[in-house]
Amino acid sequence: QVQLVESGGGLVQAGGSLRLSCAASGRGFSDYFMHWFRQAPGQEREFVSSISWSVGRTYYADSVKGRFTISRDIAKKTVYLQMNDLKPEDTAVYYCAADLRAFGHYWSDYAYWGQGTQVTVSS
User: Fold this and answer.
1) Is 69 within 8 Å of 56 (Cβ atoms)?
2) What is the C-alpha separation between 48 and 70, in angstroms, rounded?
3) Quick one: pLDDT at residue 28?
4) Which residues neighbour 107 within 8 Å (Cβ) at sequence distance 6 or greater?
């Protein structure tokens, strides 16, 4: 069993930055992939970024590439999403997910989810 708790969301002006954290607890992370998704009101949950827990290989959606950076701290069992140059269209609830599956799957295929953290970017 894996538990995930996100934090770090908030209200920021366009062009600003936020860093989201996803603290994980449980066992056997070495083979897991950690993912960030987001869901805006009335829209489907969409992929943002992924990182492999073991080697740290990263993946990004085109919409965030060059602005967002995903990283992990193995000792702290925490995954981060550094978000720079935020835009109003980045406004959403951001969710952390964990699974043995790599990126590229439909969001509902992933097993473990956090409760989400709200990010609001004002123009």
Assistant:
1) no
2) 10
3) 76
4) 37, 44, 45, 46, 47, 97
Length of the chain (residues): 123
**pLDDT of amino acid 37:** 98
Residue with tokens 């969001």: 107
Share of the chain above pLDDT 90, in %: 85
Give the pLDDT score at 31.
86
User: 2-15: buried (b, 16+ CB within 10 Å) or exposed (e) per residue?
Assistant: bebebebbeebeee
* Exposure b/e, 68-97, CB count within 10 A at least 16 = b: bbbebeeeebbbbbebeebeeebbbbbbbb
Per-residue pLDDT reduced to its tens digit, 69-118:
999 999 999 999 999 999 999 999 999 999 998 888 889 899 999 999 99
Q: Cβ(25)–Cβ(2) under 8 Å?
A: yes
Residue pair 14/121 in contact (Cβ under 8 Å)? The answer is: yes
